[in-house]
Design brief:
398 residues, OB fold (Dihydrolipoamide Acetyltransferase, E2P), 8-stranded mixed β-sheet, globular
Amino acid sequence: MSDESWVGRTFELEVGAVAHGGHCVARAQNRVVFVRHALPGELVTAEVTEDKGGSFCRADATAVLRAAPERVEPPCPVAVPGGCGGCDWQHASPQAQRELKATVVQEQLSRLGGIEREVAVEELPGGMLGWRSRVRVVAGADGRAGLRMHRSHRVIPLSGCPISVPGDLDEVFARKWRPGSEIEVTHDDEARGHVRELNVVRGKQQARQLKGGRAMQRAVGRDWRLAAHGFWQGHPAAAEALAAAVRDWAKPPVGSVAWDFYAGVGLFASVLATAVGPDGTVFAVESDRHAVTDGETNLADLPQVRWCIGRVERALRELTDQPSVVVLDPPRKGAGRAVVEAIAGRFPERVVYVACDPAALARDLATFAEHGYRLTELRAFDAFPMTHHVECVALLSR
């Protein structure tokens, strides 16, 4: 293989299977090419966009010579090669997108977790467009707000975003901003918009609230008052769907102890608290002090929820009660071997794992399996339509 970079070269490629990350796999001259804007089974002309040497490179499908039946016209004019990197699958039908995501989850479970399982990705209410209620855009050198290209710092200025709540970004896109500013926009369940601007000043990030600041969200029969730009699901139906799955599978006995790790503002702690009742205990562990403050306020009527501020690793050393069930919703990188082994070492009957990355989920499930836990149930939700992201909930039994 030549040491010369392939960037800018074009190839005619037969597109193979989907891969994790919003692209498909092809081959050129014995090298793997990860192709965006393509679908399995297509014949495309692809231009190499990134080549760091080694066994693979990345490319965009710039022309479709033989289209897959699932191909559709993207609803956004900049969801194209060289355009916005916010979406991955606008060129695929809704059903095809969910099937692609299911294939990725299955492949990651098999390759990284040693688990063979059929997966179906469930549609959430609301359709493919206008769902995204939490958006962060960035101002380019000309002050216009937009989103970055895929794997690039280049900002693509936007005048609208079809997957975002209609009208939410109109004011943001209509004005000029300080270059490099990041602007966060949140739409809550009272149809109120919240906007803040983030800038780095003397090496420190500073936030300036421009509109709103305290949001109201509804889920599991509760009104949640919380910091508008703190953690909450971006899809309006996701919090309810995930909490229902946790409720259905966790089932801690009345009067028992349950753990809720990476608890956020306590969404899952609230359903665990209802299950264990006033004589049980839910330990909710969260490292973000602001989230804990919001959680304490929102769940003040559930004294059986006890909050622990700090990292899960520390809580695992300090918690002494025996849990009947553990619920965890770690960040994208997953819980990791040390946390999984510590949880398994406390022998809960069930573990409910909420995951936003199938690769991290598969790795952690493999570690659980080493300690006697098997995957008994799995649901996957299309909580991020048009993107490659998928939300999974797994039930592990000892």
